[in-house]
């Protein structure tokens, strides 16, 4: 070996040693990585492990995450979390042709970034759930639309990209087609507020007001105003809200609906809660009134319902042979729980210190056919997607009356 070859090998060896600390990582990240690791405390070993085990073609993505992660993440995130996040970001980029057109700067800032509110391991689940929608897409725009599956139509729109504030009015119509059936919702005006914009804690609130009406084949809703908060995926309906699901009507002073990917997972009815279900065409109704009601859903189907506080219930039993109504059960209790099957059939009922009476169908007293709180607002219910623009309020005198809250007695200190 001649002197020139020795010098070349020596120079290469020195170069390799100088980059061996973070092999395969662009030099502009080295100082940033050092700074993050210095703040990681006992968790520094996890960050070093992630850098060591990440495949060569994914190293810049891992370096970017570690370089710019907040100190709280540097102290807590595991190597397994970071490796999975980066792996599925690069997997998507390699698998979908339209993803290859995403610029590197956008890919690192907006795709590789792992942040969500609770730092949950979401990337693999997100990939598995949505790949079937974006795989056939030819452009990024098509991919975005296939996942978002929602639209906003109106005659007047304002949006500020810097602040994330938006305002829509004049025949404002929100359309969501993420489920099997499309949901249409109209309000006189819609406002969008964005909080912590351009941070990993960003969330939004949508205010819809007044004359809110919504229609989907299986569910309809009416209220005066509505607020949706993306931070907890909660939709709150105010002032005489009513929900309909097939033959059931639910109303109260305020209704909270908690969502999971456009599917309802829980609903809370607060104040003067009333549930009414039409049993047949002879105006027989199952009815429950209480101070509060909670409903729990699995895969969009109601599986458990709970009524709390001054509970009154009217429930018809049907003949097992021909489904004709055979008797009426009237019950009063403080707490009532009902459990449903996946096919919406009542499986069992639990009640606390209940009192009640069972009436044969031919011996029901006239005053027992309806609870004192009974109301049926079928004439308010939206009929189709075009009917959401036609406001029909409750008949005069049937609006919920504000009930004053009891105040705690004041103690007098002598």
Give an overview in words.
The chain is α+β, with helices and mostly antiparallel strands and 414 residues long. It is 24% helix and 37% strand. The chain is built from nine helices and 16 strands. The chain has helices spanning 3-19, 30-39, 44-53, 59-68, 71-74, 79-95, 104-112, 123-134, 140-148, and strands spanning 150-153, 156-160, 165-176, 183-195, 203-216, 219-229, 234-238, 242-245, 248-251, 254-260, 263-278, 285-298, 301-318, 325-340, 346-351, 355-360. Strands 6-7-10-11-9-8 form a six-stranded antiparallel β-barrel. The radius of gyration is 29 Å and the shape is elongated. The N and C termini lie far apart (103 Å).
Rg (C-alpha, Å): 29 Å
Shape call: elongated
Name the structural class: alpha+beta
H/E series, N to C?
HHHHHHHHHEEEEEEEEEEEEEEEE
Low-confidence stretches: 3-19
Distance from N terminus to C terminus (CA atoms, Å) equals 103 Å
- The beta-strand count equals 16
- The percent range for helix content is 10-25%
Q: Estimate the mean pLDDT confidence.
A: 85
Q: How would you sum up this structure in a few lines?
A:
By secondary structure, this protein is an alpha+beta fold.
List keywords for this structure.
single chain, 414 residues, alpha+beta, six-stranded antiparallel barrel, disordered N terminus
